[in-house]
């Protein structure tokens, strides 16, 4: 009976502490006060600490005996405690009592008389915490078995389940929140977390939580068909395959940072609510997200550190822009001190992607320089280097804002002589034109040199009109190159046809006219034969050239034939002189100049 009375006395002390609004751990102090009263309830003389401490020691010892009996029956049980709601509530009550007693004993750590009780309490508390950690895992693992996946996406599609892990299907609505656990499950997890943190086992609780939530993210990421390539594998993978992987990466990283991570943060806040410190929540969230974040960032970093081949520009820009869009979201999600390294790493990789883009863009200049004139390009058509560079620049300018930002930032940060985008592109075009000037010298016919330059300049001009590239170059550049195109046109016409038309404008006696007609026919036939194999791809330019040639040849030929027929020396001769072509014949031959393709 005495033992029961002491236990009742300790319980009464705890009830008084609660009534006074104090922490139940203050029960030890109240118990010492109560132990000084006699049976009558009056205080005796001055308190005697030795006697009081001795009484407290007895009460602690008896309370621990009772708790050991209650708790041991649960600890040795093979069946999960949380499989029965009544058992879980009873067990939590006993744990609360134990945590309170352990706290009281720690507050008396200098008192040797309670050292044995403190050791017993700590040992029992350790066993309880280990069991709570197991129960925490059990509650998380059993969640999918009782969880209706119809609720997970708040009205969206059902989710797949595999091996007890709920896995979200790829979605396009980034405002969605994944409610991966039922409210009742979250309540059970929170109840366990509160006790584990109070018992000094916050890190163990965090590990139990984060290890299981990582499974969800890893499995969900695998459903997005990311290959999880290492840095070395990225370097060894053909670029064409990496282009597809980049597309998948952009979709995955957007989904992860706009849906998965915000949902995980919300779940973390709910599971670890009502804790005295927020560090457990922040640490758990970081541990959940770290593996997935590192995997995603490592891929982007491997691309940033890869080859600087010009054709890589566009997909690397896509990566850069995707990272840029998500960094503000990262700054919000990863705002605590545990996630700070992840945020810094993301910013650093975004910067390295910018440096890679600048290096790739600069490599375009080297590509042009390394493309020397070899043999004459057939028919004087548009050279492949012209098509490549212009289509490259046109496509690049679709990301004009990003490129301008990258070139400005890298130049300012590194102190290098980085040109603004407009100046950079003008410089590339000057290199291209210089390269074409070298290539035109491979043609022996001056007229074909001018036609070659005209073809390529017309292509350059057309690609620069009515798009972002034209805006970057500016109207003055367009006007200047249109004038250059007209000059090439004039030079071609003069070098090809001035000598031929000159034969028709010569004055002289009848025999001289007949000789000139013969020479005209020979030269006209030769020019038409040769230039019928020359290439003018652009239909408008092709018709302008034919019309221009006809505009000088047809009138000259018509006048020449008229003068020949009206020559005084023809009088008295039998019949008219032999005239090989009518004016219509000449114009028809001119329409046969140039073909659309060299094929």
UniProtKB/TrEMBL annotation:
General function of this protein: Component of the exocyst complex.
Transmembrane segments: none
Keyword Cell cycle among record annotations: no
The protein, known as: Exocyst subunit Exo70 family protein
InterPro entries (UniProt xref): Cullin_repeat-like_dom_sf, Exo70, Exo70_C
Listed GO biological process terms: exocytosis; protein transport
Database matches in PANTHER family: EXOCYST COMPLEX COMPONENT EXO70B2, EXOCYST COMPLEX PROTEIN EXO70
Positions of the Exocyst complex subunit Exo70 C-terminal domain: 248-590
Cellular component terms per the entry's GO annotation: exocyst
Family to which this protein belongs: Belongs to the EXO70 family.
Domain of life the protein comes from: Eukaryota
A GO term for molecular function: phosphatidylinositol-4,5-bisphosphate binding
Keywords for this protein: Exocytosis, Protein transport, Transport
